[in-house]
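Section: Multi-chain targets

For targets with more than one molecule, the full set of components is provided together so that the structure can be written out for the assembly as a whole rather than chain by chain. Components appear in the order listed by the source. The example entry contains two components.
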Amino acid sequence: EVQLLESGGGLIQSGGSLRLSCAGFGFTFSNYAMTWVRQAPGEGLEWLSGISGAGGITYYGDSVKGRFTISRDNSKNTVYLQMNSLAAEDTAVYYCARLSHIAVPHTRADYWGRGTLVTVSS
Amino acid sequence: DIQMTQSPSSLSASVGDRVTITCRASQTISSYLNWYQQIPGKAPRVLIYAASTLQSGVPSRFSGSGSGTDFTLTINSLQPEDFATYYCQQSYGFPWTFGRGTKVEI
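Its structure, encoded as tokens over all components, is:
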């Protein structure tokens, strides 16, 4: 059974940094691109970043480009999101998701974690 | 970036109704359009991909259509567990973008 488990969320002061982790289980992790999506309280979904299976290609949304860095360690079956210069508007539930096949971006997020809450206090 | 416009933003329906949600892209995206369902407090799950292909395990009462810029998600014979918010998402190019969602209230 495919499972994704996020961790690393919490309360952080404005201007601070946080690193989220997402561990994958039940599939060959290195064969799949991964992505991060967030959802601010009461708001819709916002795509943040994606990374290829080998980790050599990364993609970012405009709102996080230059502040967030996605990476992965396939030996640990884990993808990371390093978040710097955090602001109140970054407060959200952060989801990691698996992309269904290698042909990014023409694919879908077929498995999602339960999410981890990041709260940025001003 | 490609803008995705969903309508309506919310709707009220009864069990057994047929529900239609529309999504319009700001430029042509071929058939690179996915639909997700999000139940309150839960992670999203994909229902339809490539505009009209049903994701494995999703009930057949869900269907999708469209290409180019205009797309539709249809729920036939609405069930109580379909109370949720539905999002369209373009996968034509990065950055991926989502519609603002349609909340379906039973």
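The radius of gyration of chain A is 13 Å.
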